[in-house]
UniProtKB/TrEMBL annotation:
<dbReference type="InterPro" id="IPR020557">
    <property type="entry name" value="Fumarate_lyase_CS"/>
</dbReference>
<dbReference type="InterPro" id="IPR018951">
    <property type="entry name" value="Fumarase_C_C"/>
</dbReference>
<dbReference type="GO" id="GO:0006099">
    <property type="term" value="P:tricarboxylic acid cycle"/>
</dbReference>
<dbReference type="GO" id="GO:0005829">
    <property type="term" value="C:cytosol"/>
</dbReference>
<dbReference type="Pfam" id="PF00206">
    <property type="entry name" value="Lyase_1"/>
</dbReference>
<dbReference type="InterPro" id="IPR000362">
    <property type="entry name" value="Fumarate_lyase_fam"/>
</dbReference>
<feature type="domain" description="Fumarase C C-terminal">
    <location>
        <begin position="225"/>
        <end position="278"/>
    </location>
</feature>
<dbReference type="InterPro" id="IPR008948">
    <property type="entry name" value="L-Aspartase-like"/>
</dbReference>
<dbReference type="GO" id="GO:0006531">
    <property type="term" value="P:aspartate metabolic process"/>
</dbReference>
<keyword id="KW-0456">Lyase</keyword>
<dbReference type="Pfam" id="PF10415">
    <property type="entry name" value="FumaraseC_C"/>
</dbReference>
<feature type="domain" description="Fumarate lyase N-terminal">
    <location>
        <begin position="1"/>
        <end position="159"/>
    </location>
</feature>
<dbReference type="InterPro" id="IPR022761">
    <property type="entry name" value="Fumarate_lyase_N"/>
</dbReference>
<dbReference type="InterPro" id="IPR051546">
    <property type="entry name" value="Aspartate_Ammonia-Lyase"/>
</dbReference>
<dbReference type="GO" id="GO:0008797">
    <property type="term" value="F:aspartate ammonia-lyase activity"/>
</dbReference>
<protein>
    <submittedName>
        <fullName>Aspartate ammonia-lyase</fullName>
        <ecNumber>4.3.1.1</ecNumber>
    </submittedName>
</protein>
Amino acid sequence: MGRTQLQDAVPMTLGQEFHAYSILLKEEVKSIMRTAELLLEVNLGATAIGTGLNTPKEYSPLVVQKLAEVSGFPCVLAEDLIEATSDCGAYVMVHGALKRLAVKMSKICNDLRLLSSGPRAGLNEINLPELQAGSSIMPAKVNPVIPEVVNQVCFKVIGNDICVTMAAEAGQLQLNVMEPVIGEAMFESIHILSNACRNLVEKCVDGITANKEVCEAYVFGSIGIVTYLNPFIGHHNGDIVGKICAETGKTVREVVLERGLLTEAELDDIFSIQNLMHPEYKAKRYED
């Protein structure tokens, strides 16, 4: 069941939900790859402040070419060595991409924890793999430990981004002496975020299962599916049906049939699984 502001919205499949997560993460991988290219720009030969004092004219292009050969990366010489010596903007951009990935991963983990909450008093739409006993006092309790760990890793990466940002800002005049802490923060973020991604996939996502009966009960017991009836009974009637459902505990189907707004066959067609997941707009049949 789709939800907005934690309230019932309209139906969707778990496949649609998880596909959206995959696209969300693919976008961030592309962003990281794009920004990582900024790190290929080097200032070799700049010497003290970027003026190239005491450096032979041919040194910089030759050494950058050699670096590219040795490393296997297409390194390039910075356009302005003074700018490249004083500025740490590339680190800000790259770590910013890591932070964006961390933000989205943390959001996904929040969703996994919420969707697996229960099993009796929560949403309980999905089951996460059991990795350890959840409590020393409550038998059979299972905690979402991997999403929780990944959440905390993401918090750390987001904190490191503040460190990188402030260190880049703190450089004065022609040299930024804060690069050591920038490097430490970046290496840590890359390391822990890489491990978090791997653990999330191998120890959580790969073992997730769906609670089909629970998901179906939420959909057909939801008031939100009255939205599908708007083209047939109108928004005003839909609002009345929704309020009656909320007051009486009856389903949308029951109230619509009782009020004679649609037939059983029409409801079967509208509330078919195919139409609920891939709704087709149908012409209005009611009078305003």
